[in-house]
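Moderator note: this is an archived Q&A kept for reference. The question asked for a predicted structure of one protein chain; the sequence and the answer are reproduced below.
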Amino acid sequence: MKKVLFIICATMLAFAAEAKNDEMSIEYDQIPAKAQSFVSEYFPNVAVKKATQKFDDGIAEYTVYLKNKAVVKFDMVGGWNEVEVSKKSVIPTGFLPKKVSETLNANFDNKSICKMSNDGYVYVIKYSDGFEAKINANGVIF
């Protein structure tokens, strides 16, 4: 009985330790090539500080931390999920769909973007003044 209890406790501790450390540092060249291309194209003169990988329900997610304090999160194939920059930096927007970009330029051109995220359907744009816009891929604000 003591052995069974010991095995159960050891297993629970192992799972707790794994859950606590689910994000691990990796080499930058271990992230998908598509993600590396994104960083090279949209942050060409910024060095990579570190890259991490974590698994959410068995699906890999990658995060790249840049020296200018920008953080870019990618899905398992290297598509961007989130881009965040410090309030002093300018966030690139060339990777947004054309209609989303046109809507931003027409409605919020004078605002400074500090964070963008997308789930494949909705683009959430956060501005440094706290304002937030939600836009679908067709450029419709809601």
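Archived answer notes: The chain is about 30% helix and 35% strand.
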